[in-house]
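Could you help me review a protein record that somebody else here produced? This is what I was given.
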Amino acid sequence: MRPTKPGVVTVTLNAAIDQTLECPGFTAGEVNRVVAETRTPGGKGINVAAFLAGGTRPVTAAGFLGADSAPLFEALFHERGIHDRCLRLPGSSRVNIKVVDRTSSAVTDLNLPGLSIPEEALDALTTTLDALAEENGCFVLSGSVPAGVPATLYAMLTERLRAKGARVAVDTSGEPLRHAITAKPDFVKPNARELEALVGRPLKNAGEVARAARDLHASGIGLVVVSLGAEGALFVSGDGAWRALPPPVEVASTVGAGDALVAGVLASRLEGHDLETCARRSTAFAAGKLAKVGPVPPAPERVAELLCAVRMHPLGTG
């Protein structure tokens, strides 16, 4: 996955402000005391851009932002050196509330609906991405699809961008994922539940998950990565198949861990690393992010420390 054009563009249709509430002993239906609160710009593509920024390749964020909440995102783009090609729409981006209970290591998500996207805004987005494809060789289409957007959009964009010679990664779920895989993106990253929904059956263990990932790869998708939370991730490509298990780490927030994995995979593959190295490096990067709240990459020395502790297991051909 080494495009000839150096830039990476992330596309976020449903950007969000992630409000994280630290609430020890959180109990539904009871009065709970919040001991700390943070607000960070988010949305899956925004997070991937933030994790990739500062590397060797220019990073651009595209998609939609609510004009009223745009300053929070603009501050992140300025701080990280991310090129801003997001389209502004009237209103505010959605808020996702994350209730973190460190006593039980549990995170409760309350995700609000996003902006409604008019048809003319979708046309403007397509025009923007066509222009960006002239100078950028890798596109990341990630996150949920808001109201007014057809579930086929990621599939259409994948076909359009690949026809222009770009490499395309997709990280979404449900019907948008089902349609997207028909367009054969270069890389997809479902989690285990999303993969179950895609194949229409329970996947009872890692072996069944691996077989489903292999089937997805055999359908024409170059790299399939299935995130398994604390149990690591499975990586399947033409180079083989691996399971990577991260070491135990302190968890401040799991929000954005999957996006850190996507960013780690892309950075490693774009640098030309083989699948085993890619799996080890991206797993260490995602594990390091867990100690941070918001789209904050772990320090390089912390990633190097975790790299040695990632356990790698080759998967057979069955």
Remarks:
- Residues 44 and 143 are 5 Å apart (CA to CA).
- The radius of gyration is 19 Å.
- Residues 7-25+35-314 form a domain with the UDP-N-acetylmuramoyl-L-alanine:D-glutamate ligase fold (CATH 3.40.1190.20).
